[in-house]
Design brief:
This protein has helices spanning 9-18, 23-30, 34-41, 49-58, 71-81, 94-103, 105-133, 141-151, 157-167, 173-184, 193-196, 218-233, 235-243, 250-269, 272-281, 286-293, 297-303, 350-353, 412-415; strands spanning 187-191, 201-204, 209-213, 318-322, 328-333, 362-367, 373-384, 392-402, 421-422. The chain is of the alpha+beta class and 464 residues long. The protein has 5 domains: 9-66, lambda repressor-like DNA-binding domains (434 Repressor (Amino-terminal Domain)); 71-133; 139-269, Arc Repressor Mutant, subunit A, CATH 1.10.10; 313-428, Beta-Lactamase; 431-464, no CATH class. It is 44% helix and 12% strand. 30% of the residues are buried. The termini are far apart. A hairpin with a 5-residue loop joins β6 (362-367) and β7. It comes from Aurantiacibacter aquimixticola.
């Protein structure tokens, strides 16, 4: 069988530019014509074995240095992007995708950026449309921040890599304290609310100190220390990510920056590869994962929404946090679920019923009106408190994934013989009849007359 031709155009051009050579210079060094160099750089001619050996000996490089370490990841990212329904009628072979990633990395990156921008604009348009329907102002920093994160599926591999590298040295609070002292001349201390005035963390710039509330549990203390390091050291990397987005308000940019700083801090406590491996081993048992990494239930659940690194994906999860009144304080869509956009207000969803059993994990199989089924894992979490009289708040957090992943989850046995609970994304959008929990009639349906029959269902509507 003939050996496959080796095309190294973009990498050959990069090598030449790194060496500050013209095509004529390189051609002279390799004893070939400048036109042949040009053809190889455009992938119109393969790099022969003789030329490859001359490259290695002339410029004292390892042949392996010409390998594109990012090609596999780029190919995986391309494969994921090309699953978008907009490309559904285009048949592109995996081998073609791999060739594009290897031979035309610039084009591949351009396509990926364009696809990200397309997704971001779609989300922004949806936010504006929904806001207009509800009479909201068009300027919505929270909506902008959520759209930015959702367009990237709340996954930032560069931040994951940086945090994973730092985690080798900063695995404990003591190690982070030493790092802040050595790298930044800052003294990390635990203190009471008297000094912090209710805050969780305070960087006292003039005294060169960082105070963390002693009322926080060990997971909270470590997270705040990691967050301080992210603020001090990840500004440039985060600014680069933000610059790639389309954020029109200062508040929106601040919210995204805070989210990315928290992302890096969580990635330091739960490094990507170790976390993804542990999640699979523990079958996505959130409590067990939280115990292994010495983090809170909410921190572990939040981290599970970020497992979208190309080629190393975990189960895709959606995350929601609500209070007793149903107000959404955090929403992360890592799975593209329809109830991500509408807040998950259905009272039949277990994110609301967990308030009846504080601290207990509740697993539920849910089904939307269109027949789509999901697994929802919910539990209450408490914020604040820590001393007598201190205010606290109890919220409920839920993560959900497609029921297609049920067998990968520790909750599978408990749900295997359970009938799914029918829910709706919102009462105005749910056309499911006979729902006793309904708070509003669905759009476009007439209320049924009650002259001869009382159904007992609020806002009963005609199904004929």
């Amino acid at each position: 069988m003939a050996a496959k031709a080796l095309y190294l155009g973009p990498r050959l051009k990069k090598l030449r530019r790194d060496l500050s050579l013209t095509q004529a210079n390189m051609a002279s060094d390799l004893e070939i014509s400048p036109s042949y160099i040009a053809l190889m750089e455009r992938n119109q001619r393969p790099v022969t074995a003789d030329t490859l050996i001359k490259l290695a000996t002339t410029y004292r490089i390892d042949v392996a240095d010409l390998a594109d370490e990012d090609a596999d990841e780029t190919a995986a990212r391309l494969q994921g992007a090309l699953k978008d329904p907009i490309f559904a009628d285009i048949d592109i072979e995996p081998l073609d995708i791999s060739d594009i990633a290897t031979s035309y990395p610039g084009f591949a990156e351009a396509l990926l950026r364009l696809h990200t921008a397309f997704g971001e604009e779609q989300l922004a348009l949806t936010e504006r449309r929904d806001g207009a329907q509800q009479g909201e102002a068009t300027s919505d920093p929270i909506g902008e921040a959520r759209a930015f994160l959702a367009a990237r599926r709340n996954s930032f591999p560069d931040l994951d890599d940086s945090a994973s590298a730092a985690a080798r040295e900063l695995g404990s609070l003591d190690a982070m304290r030493d790092h802040l002292a050595d790298a930044h001349g800052l003294d990390l201390r635990l203190t009471d609310d008297g000094l912090l005035n209710g805050a969780l963390r305070w960087h006292d710039y003039h005294r060169r100190r960082v105070y963390i509330a002693e009322r926080l549990d060990p997971a909270g203390r470590r997270f705040q220390a990691a967050l301080q390091i992210a603020i001090l050291e990840q500004n440039e990397a985060i600014s680069t990510i933000i610059a790639d987005g389309r954020i029109s308000t200062e508040d929106g940019e601040r919210l995204v920056r805070r989210a990315l700083q928290s992302y890096w801090a969580a990635a330091l406590l739960m490094p990507y590869r170790a976390f993804t491996k542990a999640a699979a081993e523990l079958r996505y048992d959130v409590e067990a994962i939280a115990t292994r990494f010495a983090v809170s239930f909410e921190q572990a659940a939040h981290r599970l929404t970020t497992l979208h690194r190309a080629g190393e994906e975990g189960v895709p999860f959606f995350f929601l946090r609500v209070d007793r009144a149903g107000n959404v304080s955090k929403r992360l869509d890592g799975a593209g679920f329809p109830f991500a956009r509408h807040g998950g207000a259905c009272p039949l969803w277990n994110v609301h019923r967990t308030f009846d059993r504080p601290g207990e994990v509740d697993a539920q199989l849910i089904e939307l009106s269109e027949g789509e089924r999901y697994v929802s894992i919910a539990r209450t979490v408490t914020g604040g408190g820590g001393r007598f009289g201190a205010p606290s708040v109890t919220r409920s957090v839920a993560i959900a994934c497609s029921a297609a992943h049920l067998e990968k989850l520790a909750y599978a046995d408990a749900l295997a013989k359970t009938a799914p609970t029918p829910i709706g994304v919102a009462c105005r959008l749910c056309h499911r009849p006979n729902c006793i929990a309904r708070s509003a009639p669905p759009m476009g349906r007439e209320i049924a007359p009650a002259r001869f029959r009382e159904s007992g269902v609020p806002f009963d509507f005609s199904t004929g």
